[in-house]
């Protein structure tokens, strides 16, 4: 299985880079993982809705370059569907049974993901109604993908 994570912005703090490296190493047993970071836009303090939309569209164009029609695209979106870890694992399992061997996850910045990218997505996933920094969220997504493989293989996972 090929898993790609497209994320707006770079990991800056060492502890986040270390966590991402650890989960990437753990996932290497289960899948081919590719993490793509696209440049984020500066968001001024007082930004109109129109300006926010323009920023999301510019970031969306950068994301668009990495999307392909063969991959199943999952956007992380506050308005998306929520599921448990086991439900998430089963949905990934169903995708593979249907022949989807390539999954792309998209993480936007603090403004979210452009409407164009959301329209191209096959699924919109929401981890929580709470707001998390997108850098930390990348670690959370990596952990859930790792947990998915452990669940699907019936392997123990220490909580």
UniProtKB/TrEMBL annotation:
Location of the protein in the cell = Cytoplasm
* One Pfam family linked to the record: SPOUT_MTase
Q: Cite a single GO MF annotation.
A: methyltransferase activity
For the biological process aspect of GO, one term held by this record is:
methylation
* Reactions catalysed according to its record: pseudouridine(1915) in 23S rRNA + S-adenosyl-L-methionine = N(3)-methylpseudouridine(1915) in 23S rRNA + S-adenosyl-L-homocysteine + H(+)
Q: What is its main location?
A: cytoplasm
Q: Specify which residues bind S-adenosyl-L-methionine according to the UniProt entry for this protein.
A: 76, 108, 127-132
Print the keywords alphabetically: Cytoplasm, Methyltransferase, rRNA processing, S-adenosyl-L-methionine, Transferase
User: What CDD domains does UniProt report for this protein, alphabetically?
Assistant: RlmH-like
Concerning InterPro entries, the annotation shows:
Alpha/beta_knot_MTases, RlmH-like, tRNA_m1G_MTases_N
EC?
2.1.1.177
- Source organism's superkingdom? Bacteria
| Similarity field | Belongs to the RNA methyltransferase RlmH family.
Function of this protein? Specifically methylates the pseudouridine at position 1915 (m3Psi1915) in 23S rRNA.
Outline the subunit composition.
Answer: Homodimer.
Protein's recorded name: Ribosomal RNA large subunit methyltransferase H
Q: Which organism is it from?
A: Clostridium lapidicellarium
